[in-house]
Each structure stands twice: as structure tokens, then as C-alpha cells.
Amino acid sequence: MAKVLIWDAPVRVGHWLLVGAFALAWATSESEEWRLMHAVAGGVMIGVILFRLLWGFVGTRHARFASFVRGPQAAFAYVRGLLRGEASQYAGHNAAGGWAILALLALGLMTGASGWLVYQDMGGEWLEEAHELLANGLLAVAALHVAGVVASSLAHRENLVRAMLTGFKSGRPEEAIASARPWAIPLLLVSAAAAAWLLTR
Amino acid sequence: MKSVIFLLAGSLAMSAQAAMPAELLGGYAAAAGAGFKADAARGAAFYAKAFGVSAKMPSCASCHTDSPSQPGRHVVTDKAIKPLAPAANPERFSDPAKVEKWFKRNCSEVVGRECTAAEKADFIAFVTGGR
User: How far is CA B18 from the centre of its chain?
Assistant: First the structure.
């Protein structure tokens, strides 16, 4: 199969922004000296996720929720196929990966929101505990997501990490998106910066 | 109705668990060894000491001000911090897990290591304004 354009630019930039911001937030989580940086990283995550939720409705084909959210049966069938070494190949997110995306977005948003409440000194000790629990959950799903990416990359003999960098992935010509829509990158960055600024005031 | 009863039972259990600052102090003092006696003056010196580990927050007082009964201000985020002294803020030193968590966080960053049980006992003696 030929390499065709699957992931648009905002999806890719947003993905790596989330990876970087979560890593930064994790690294600074035990420090008061880095508390502002920690909150900025959380704000960036919220800004990117809110943009991504909107992009899930107005973005390019494979970025839309309607194109990759499938039933649980399809997800289990994909995983079973993967374990047997005969997984069906998807142009965009596979049926199991789609659920990982939803879980990552939901956990990321909840982790960020609970962190913001803690930062504003609202809620009590229980909210700090909830924030840590959510962050641990986010890390666990991210690890699962990475494991899935590695497994699928091996099964389909395709470097899916590179696909998230270049946007190009195996697919039929009619599955390609017409444009990477780079013009939406500034909107994504404004969303991330605005959230980081507003949420750390 | 059932959930209300559970909530009531839960909050009763929580208040029963809530340790008074004196009990916490006693626990740390006991852990510090036989013959140890918590000393508020030693705690005050510890509180004010510039450890020089962190440039932005060299001492406890950097954020908590010179007096634990005053509201503090986070030197990095500029957010208000409620007073440390239980007399000004009864929530303080009422939850052993929370106390341990914050000693661990703040000691490692300000003192550069975990605080000893003796240091914690002296610290609580100082902030409670007690003996």
C-alpha cells in the first residue's frame, strides 16, 4: 500500500505538545520551585485538548470522532486479531486506538481541571489525591497507548511513530486527506497559550 | 437517605481519626528516641534557617513568612498560603498523612533531605506556639 497523508498538522503538533506538556508536568510534580511551570504545562494540556475536542468535529477526516469512534466489539476484535498476528489495518486510528484517544483526552482534561482547582486552592486534600490518581491513570493509559502503537507497528510493518511526525501512513489513495491544514496550527497554539495563561492567574 | 447516613458515619469516622497537633508532636517525639524533648525554640531556629539548598525558597519563612500564624505567599506562584499555625488555621496538623506528605515535599526541596523525627517534633512545637 502507498503512503498517503492521514494525520493533519494540528493533530500531529497537538499530539507532541501533549506528550511534552505531560512529561514536563510529571517531572515537576513534586516540586514547589517548579510549581508555576507545572501549572503552565497543565494549562497547555487543557488548551490542546479543548482544541482537539473541537477539531474532532471540524477537523480532517481521520481527526473526526465520527470516523474513529467504533463499538467495543470492533475494538476487541482488533486486539484479538493483533494477538493472532492478523489485525485488520485501519487508515486512521484502529478500533482499539480510538478508545485510547478518548480515554487520554478525558483523563487529560480531568487531570488538568483537578490540578487547576488545587492550584487555586479550591477543594481540599482529597482533590490533591484525586489529581494524582488521575495523573497516574493518564500515565497508565499513555503506556497502554504506546504499547498498542508498538504492537500495531510490528503487526503492520509500519512505523506509526513516524506517521505521527510526518502525517504519512499506509492507505488507499481515496483514504488520504486533501490538506494537512497547517493554517490551523496558530489556532492550536493560541488555544494552548491562552489556557496556560488564564489557568495560572 | 441511606447515603446521608453513610456521609454522617463517614464524617464521624474522619473526625475520630483527626489527630490533634499534640498527638502528632508526641508521635514524632517518641520516634526521635528516648530522652528527646521537643523544643519550640529549636523549631523556630529551624523554621528561620536559610538552608541555601533552594535559591528561591531558602527557608520555611520564604513562603510562610516570619510568623507561622500569618498567611503566607508562594514565592514562585504568588498564591496565598493559609497560616501554618493551628491557632490561626485549625485544619493544620490535624491529618497525619497530609502532614507527612508536606514534610516530605518541602523538606526535600528546602532542607535538601528528609527531615528527622526530632526536627518535625520541634517544628510542630514551634508552630503550635507550645512547649
Answer: 14
